[in-house]
Amino acid sequence: MADAEDVRRLALALPHVVEIDSDGFDFRVGGKGFVWSYPERRPGKPRVIRTDIAVLYVGDEAEKQALLLGEPERFFTTPAYDGMPLVMLRLDKVDPDRLEELITDAWHMRAPDTLADDLDTPADQTSTNPR
User: Fold this and answer.
1) What is the pTM of this model?
2) Strand partners, 18
């Protein structure tokens, strides 16, 4: 079972990651988001930042559908995310090893080509996060 602190630890271990100030977690590479807290919206109610659910960039619709259909206990989507290569992940349904794989894959898909080679460099040599 993973949680928001696992997301933070894993995301910040990747090179060139910046954490954006938010009520939950929000990580970017090259100015592009790759994992963040789910901003749940319910009609007539204020938005709630859910740190128990991560929004992950997945690359394309085929991968999104494969995750949604293959692991519905872990992944879901909402109409607000239709047409976007994003899935929501229930953190309490994933172990830290799988979470690391998912976050690293999202990083790879969002990192500019000029930064992608830095993944093999230790994070403390490449991180731009001030935390």
Assistant:
1) 0.85
2) 28
Q: 65 has which bridge partners?
A: none
Q: By the 8 A CB rule, do 7 and 54 touch? A: yes
CA-CA distance, 52 to 118, in Å (whole number)?
29
Looking up tokens 């403390």, which residue turns up?
A: 124
- 40 vs 96: CA distance, rounded Å: 23
- In terms of Cβ atoms closer than 10 Å to its own Cβ (0-12, 13-18, 19+), residue 91 is buried
Q: What span, in angstroms and rounded, lies between the C-alpha atoms of 31 and 18?
A: 8
Distance of alpha carbon 48 from alpha carbon 41, whole angstroms: 7
Residue 123 has pLDDT above 80, yes or no: no
